[in-house]
Protein 1
Amino acid sequence: MVNLEELKKEASQILKEGKVKYIIGFQRGSNGLLPVPAFIKNPKDVEKLVWDPTCVYNLTLFLQDEKRKKTKEKEPDERPVGIVVKGCDSRAINVLLQEEFIKRDDVYVLGVSCENTGVLDEKKLAKKLKGKKAKKVEFGANDDFVITTEDGNIKIAAQEVLAERCLECKAHFPVIYDVLIGEKTKRNVENPFKSLEKIESLPPEERWKFWKEQIEKCIRCYACRSVCPMCYCDECVADTINFVVTPDTSAEEKAQKIKWLEKSPVSSENFVYHFVRAIHLAGRCIDCGECERVCPLDIPVRFLNKKLEKEAKELFDYDVGFDPDKPSLVSSFKDDDPEDFIR
Amino acid sequence: MEKVLSKKAFPQWVKKLESYTMYLPRKDGDFWNYEVIKNPEIIDLDYLNTVLSPKKIIFPQREVLLEFSTSNEEELKINEVLPEEAQSVIFGVRPCDAKALTLTDKVFGGDFKDPYYWKRRNSTALVGLACNTPPSPNCFCLSVDGSPHSKEGLDILITDLGDKYHAESFTKKGDDLLNLAKALFKNPTAKEKKDLEKIQAESKKKIQRQIKDTKKIPPKLKDMFDSPFWDEESLSCIRCGICTYLCPTCHCFDINDEVTSSSPIKGERVRTWDNCQFPDFTMHSSGHNPRPDKAARLRQRILHKFQYFVELYKNYQCTGCGRCISKCPVGIDIIEVLEKARDYGS
């Protein structure tokens, strides 16, 4: 079992020793079931830390802010940032290391195990509780969750309320860490791409219809991009100003930049946005599922990324985020790489 | 005009309004959204609040302002495209969303009366649905001068009385809608009027969230522009546009030319929603960005709603619908931010 006290003790110690400048973790919010990100500097505040199945966020996202802040400082504090990560989040750290977005010394990884289960899908739980309000969700002893509601506790098998990505997770414990809290559990996932089966079985025209309907709902709030730890580009083709302008950028340079897509939320432009994002995440997406969770219109964005994860696995036997020392998929090749799909 | 309509007769009323374009909340998976309805039989007014407010109908996310093209003689032709004046009815508008339209009215109805906005606004009737129970756990209309059965901005307000609806019309547009199906409506009895009062009083008690002392916030914010408060509060913000795009009162837009053919030149000038939370919103062509980080952008969202708008229009630019709270990917809670600001440094 993950011992929360152990996590707090460790966090407090590294803060007291000055080993880290601050810790990014989870704390209870003012409202709702889900926690909010915590940025803790004072060892006293480690009491706020929580770790339970509602801790859905991938906090490695905030390493982008840290990096941006650091580049602006004249004499930056070079100490690492402490960060609480689950299995999937830890794979994000590995990808960021592979891509040299961060250095190993930039982070002090406080790994927490998902206890052979994973994190909660709030919508699944709401359906299960039929209007009853959950106040607290904790890991149970038998691969279940203990839900505290207004009228007492209920136990629900984790499988029934787990986030989709957790059902297909290959390692529900951190694969990179400085401290590991909890156990390295092992669960056999028969088919890590099971969720894709239904949509893959559809004939192309029906698949097209499905995606067209979904993508047309998009209002381009870019929450999927904003929440993604891999979407760290300073310039993105989706923005109207899709390149970094500095006082030195000449008018010619500005004029030469191509406008890849319009701001209008119509299907052609929405498709460009979502496809560009999906392609750029091939071999990089660690399937934290955050893009899909945050979508206000419930567009199943995760399927796009999952499909490319599957392609990477089947064509190149590439597993994302398991080895920070391995070259990344898109920046390496082997002589015997398959190429029969190139036409 | 005050009337009562049996629930069974509701679809018949809607049928009588066939000459109007009708919008109603429809369930799409796990959420509700406004759609044009063709078949009144499937109407269901038992709904939670929609993801996007009816603002999207009056002030659509994409709107063509004009078309341009060059003819063979290379003469530039410009053609203004005003929206069609289709008589429309939006059913089931929550009082907070109706009030929000009275706020966008102020913005688009100042010295310059925006013709695109007003064409739709004037030809649309709003039939509200009182919130006997709050449609969201994050509703806080009472804290921002609203109420779960406010008539502000509405033509008709419908209140669920169990097996019937109480319908009160406040405008000529509303009266017209009721008069189209006169036979279906009855005058309310004394008991029904009493029931209505009871339901309205109870509905207020059911709202779970509130801002205490909202009045103290605008004057307090005035002195907080340079406060480190915004850095602290924005730490977890991820810079997405959910809070603003889902907001029923946010009204910022961008205008772009979308060229569909370069030879001969053909295209449209298009207005789209814009979002103060995006980095390019305030980006100057020099590369200078006066709101360079997320702290400045969160501050803008709060100050616009609770200081600038109050100074300009004597209203909070927030109607307490709770969408920004419910949908924020990282749980930023405008109620909490406002209360912390109110108490900051004291």
Note: The longest strand of chain A covers residues 107-112.
Protein 2
Amino acid sequence: MKRLLLAAMIALVALSAFAQQKVTLTIESWRNDDIQIWQDQIIPAFEKKYPNIHVVFAPTPPAEYNGVLNSKLEGGTAGDLITARPFDASLALYNKGYLADLTNLPGMNNFSNVAKSAWITDDGKHVFAVPMASVIHGFFYNKDIFKKLNLKVPQTKAEFMQVLEAIKKDGRYIPLAMGTADMWEAATMGFQNIGPNNWKGEEGRQALLAGKQKYTDEPYIKTWKELASWAPYLPKGYQAVKYPDAQQLFTLGKAAIYPTGSWEIWLFEKDAAFELGIFPPPIEKKGDTVYISDHTDIALAMNAKTKYPEEAKKFLEWMTTAEFASLYSNALPGFFTLSNHKITLKDQLANEFLSWRATCKSTIRNSYQILSRGDQYGAPNLENELWQVSAAVINGTMTPEEAGKRVQAGLDKWYKPKK
Amino acid sequence: MLDIRGSRKFPFFLIVFLGPAAICYTLFMIYPLAESLILSFFSVQPDNSYVFSGFANFVKLFTDSDTAPRFWGALKNNVLFFIIHMLVQNPIGLLLASLLVTKGKARGFYRTVLFMPTVLSVVIIGFIWQLILNPLWGVAESMMRAVGLGKLFQPWLGLPQYALPAVALISVWQFIGIPMILFYTALIGIPDELIEAAVVDGCTEMQAFWQIKFPLILPTIGIVSILTFVGNFNAFDLIYTMKGAFAGPAYSTDIMGTLFYRTFFGQQLQLGNPTMGATVATMMFLIILTGVLIYMFLFQRRVKTYQL
């Protein structure tokens, strides 16, 4: 009897110890498109290494994510790991004490400063999320059309315009598939895509932040001028052409070139019946450095009030490894790891995009960090303004100079750079 | 009636009858409305706290160099939106209704078909019309070309000077069924004897319409107008579906509803501003209230209603 009791007690202790060891971590995310990838590929790979930790991926629809997450954090019911939007949305959560400081997380040194810039305090001292992925801007082109018209992939701006003119002259295809109806394409796929070559990427972006450059300066005006020169090559009635229209125009093989970013790889490879090619934003003259927008988009943070900080940190640490980098970037072609690990991608287009990182200089969209807080101070939001003016410039209802003046005036209203 | 026994007892059953509705209405309509009106007198600080600021939000909305053009622009567009509805939707609705009351076999068919868009989802309407007017694959251009008007085709939804009228006309197309059915019921309520007597007296069809039917349906015209007014100044969904929260191009289709949405919920990198949003909502409330009061005191009280 005594022995039986002892055995039972030992079993009980062992069981409770086991129960203590098996920890469940929940990930909050807006990427409900990726649930399969997390459940079938990423989480099993992690659990294999850490059998005591069970991870659940629990996404919320993108449009509701920020609101739902805020209320969950306020109510103390949020998951242990939190997918973080870039810049101010996450910074606000960190400042309110909802996100843990991850500056000293082992493995953080696998990320460059640009990669971390989206999840860092303004003074650059505290990092509060592990960068996951970025998207790279560039141009897709239809290789079949290029072959048929005997065109060379343009490197310089002059060549780019010549190619557009040649396609237009031929008359069978629309040179450039883009519309201005949704406005964001004009800013994101236009202005922020070709602009870095004019403002020299990070150099220009930092100068804007420091107040040493203004949107009325030459590199910015020039970018808008270049955008305006696209107008004759856009589809007829482009003012009313929306994003899905342009996508279809390209995948149906009716347009030759499509300015966009790596996130389209999956859709284009699925829909296009022709060979796809890509090229980076054109430069002034051969030999110039190419600057690409390698925009930091998604990261993972830790809930400051999680019950299992050690386990959560283990997961985050694992996310800094080459294994995760390779797994994630391969599962989602077009979303690239922000780490410095050398990884090989199975998707050829994704590989080509990624190869630009070695030959080009990376920057991010210049309106995302700090500068788009105007609305908090009763001034216009810079990103929104860029949408408006870039679309208007292409539509011909605003001159590049007016665009620069309007954007800078809105910024000057509240932004006082540290001198 | 209640004083059956001569005592003045409070009619408690009235509370039972009115209670549920009064409670629901107070809880879900009056309370949020009051809360929103109060909110418009506060301003939100960068550290997320609310501070009482009196009329500062309103002053900003009317005078600030960034917000004022948006507000006045939205108000102007909204007035234009309303005028287009009054000039196009209601007369055509009346015309269709008077055609429907004439005898004819296809009457029931047309009545249903014309009312159909009204019961369709706005999202579907927006989608269909965007496809029709699409400059790349829309049928509008080829149809216009077939009748020799191809040169007149423009990407209307993308041009600042045409976008608002285009959206307004789509809205008219959708809601034409409502004035039509209201006028229709008013018209069939007019006794035939009245018209017959007039015809016997030598009255023409036109005269019968303008001098007998029209005065009789005047109260319905008032109701249709006020419904249009309230509906137009609350409108949001069609423009949001077709043009997004920015109501482009260059805010040319921006009306009070989209302005409110953008201000309150934010957009892309712009964070929502609850107090400024409440200020816009308060203005919408005041505009609609003014319109309804004008209707009630200047129109409804003066218009003659005939007991038939």
Note: The domain at 2-135+296-357 of chain A is CATH 3.40.190.10 (D-Maltodextrin-Binding Protein; domain 2).
